[in-house]
Amino acid sequence: MALRELKSIVAFLLIFAGLQWLYGLGRGTAVERLLIDMLTVRPSVALINLITPGENVRAVGHSLVSPHARLNVLNGCEGIETFFLLLAAILIHRTSWRHKLSGAVLGVVFVHGLNQARIVTLFYAFRYDKSLFSLLHGYMLPVVLILLTSLFFLAWAVACKKAANGSTLHA
After folding, report:
1. pLDDT for 11-51, tens place per residue?
2. Where are the domains of the chain?
3. What is d(CA 148, CA 156) in angstroms, rounded to the nearest whole number?
């Protein structure tokens, strides 16, 4: 392995660990409430009620609550680790800061959307089949999130390369 690749791996790990550490400082604060209660739970509740109004789901702090189920969204369930992995990869990628900024902005929207779909899926699984919930929560959906986010990164990196070679960057 070349020294350049080793430096990239170390930089990636340090950026990811640093972001995790900084986020950890926000546990129990307004930052955590914003990311979990406001930006994760409330949109999930709205989406579930849009899809199935009869569920009558309410946002209660970190929880999605209906007459039939209560799903707690804990620290780590908001998708932040997936975004931090993506952001670390974007930051070490050799491209312009303009492209890095566009990748970070598009990435946060992408990861947030994926995570909302994950939370909604988990709510329905918990509501209707708790054994399916365990499988989805513990194994399948984390892998799907990482896989799709990796594909997002690859598509973004290819678009950056094309832009650097004179093509137009299309997001």
Report:
1. 999 999 999 999 999 888 999 999 999 999 999 999 999 99
2. 3-164
3. 12
